[in-house]
Fold:
Amino acid sequence: GHQRSVRVVTRKPITPSEAEVRENPRARSAKLRVAEKL
Structure:
């Protein structure tokens, strides 16, 4: 079941908005970590 969740996340790549990146440069890596937790 865990693998399916990861696949769904990879299908829809999450791209943080420019404003979000400016406020939190680690947002990109943080969202990648979410995929690993699932």
